[in-house]
Amino acid sequence: MVPNTYDFWLFDLDGTLVDAEWSYTREVFDRVGSRIGYDFSDRQSEVLWHGLSGARDPLLREWGLDPTEFWPAFHAVEDPEARAEASYLHDDAARLLDDIHGQDVPVGLVTHCAEFLARPVTDRLDLTARFDTFLSCSDETGWKPAPDPLHIAMDDIGVDPTSQRGVYLGDGDSDVGAAWNAGLDAVHVERHGHDRRGRCVRADHRVWSFDDLPRTGTAGSAWGSGAARADGSGFDGDALD
Questions:
Q1: What is the mean predicted confidence (pLDDT) over 81-91?
Q2: For residue 71, how far is the Cα from the chain centroid?
Q3: Which of 2, 61, 87, 185 has the fewest beta carbons under 10 Å from its own?
């Protein structure tokens, strides 16, 4: 495994370390739909929940929905405790966190999930204490793929990407973009498959499971690696059949 490759590690949360049972996700979109008068299909619910299309607001507008109406309704119907009860830690993520813990290096969490939802999940799964910093993005911190949230987290744990080697692990192209924009290596874990995502996300390490991470510090994996686009995203632009 690769824990000794990096001086510090940063992680995304949803889709990367944890996920929620489908029954909970389906119920959330049923309740949101009732509030805003929209019938979300299973596919729409999946794409929005996991961010499979990248940025969610343009997709909402494409469906004729106003993001300023959708997001308040979404947060209003979510029950932090119910979400925590429905959430589980991926086995490969648990193994990687255990390996990193043995190296005694700084570890941080940077997530787009609102803190009132994220904290109960990490508390219930005994994850909170594993992180030296915990950042839920906001308008004040900035949003991925901008590097600002990662810079804040790195400042908090006292690391410098210009003199230390760091990595950010996530399941979306905005995670890869944030990593590259912040001067970090990027690991993309594909938990849904290219056919369901409809595209391929480029990164320094592209894996189906964290168990597939290379066991040495080589830059790249069996999937290959790619340079960041000018906008800092990790999307290679090619939709899959």
A1: 97
A2: 18
A3: 61
